[in-house]
Design brief:
single chain, 114 residues, mainly alpha, Cytochrome Bc1 Complex, Chain D, domain 2, two-stranded antiparallel ribbon, 42% helix, binds heme C
Length: 114
């Protein structure tokens, strides 16, 4: 999992390929992400993605983290790594995405913050 995360970070920065927010949006629908996560601030069973990028997130246990690219990638690649306050571990399913797919999903979520 660490290796995957490192590759994801590399893909986002140094790997040359431009992540595609359009593809990320399609992946989010195809994989059912948007059944739980809204993209417009509406309250569903998971935190909305609108305005999430670079926002301060309070985690279970009370610590806070800025939702930068690495946090978003980690939240998708390893949902149990950090749990948002008020939610339960295991509420988000695990996925097996390629690093490109994770980069595209992250780019899509980033595009939802003006
Ligand atoms: C069955 C509902 C469900 C589905 C489907 C789901 N998630 Fe989640 N997700 C959650 C819940 C609940 C949380 C908050 C708990 C946690 O931190 O794991 C969460 C947390 C997140 C976070 C961190 C949110 C924050 O506010 O810090 C990201 C990013 C995320 N999910 C992305 C995705 C992506 C991308 C997909 C699809 C590939 C997806 N999720 C599918 C329920 C879901």
């Amino acid at each position: 999992m660490r290796g995957l995360l490192l590759c994801t970070l590399l893909a986002l920065t140094a790997c040359g390929r431009q992540p595609s927010p359009e593809n990320g949006g399609n992946l989010a629908v195809l994989n059912g992400c948007t059944a739980c996560h809204s993209t417009d601030g509406t309250k569903k069973i998971a935190p909305t993605w609108q305005g999430l990028y670079n926002a301060e997130v309070t985690l279970a246990g009370g610590s806070t983290i800025i939702a930068g690219e690495a946090y978003l990638a980690e939240s998708i690649a390893d949902p149990a790594a950090r749990i948002v306050a008020g939610y339960t571990e295991g509420a988000m399913p695990g996925y097996t995405f390629t690093e490109e797919e994770i980069a595209d999903l992250v780019a899509y979520i980033m595009s939802l913050t003006p």
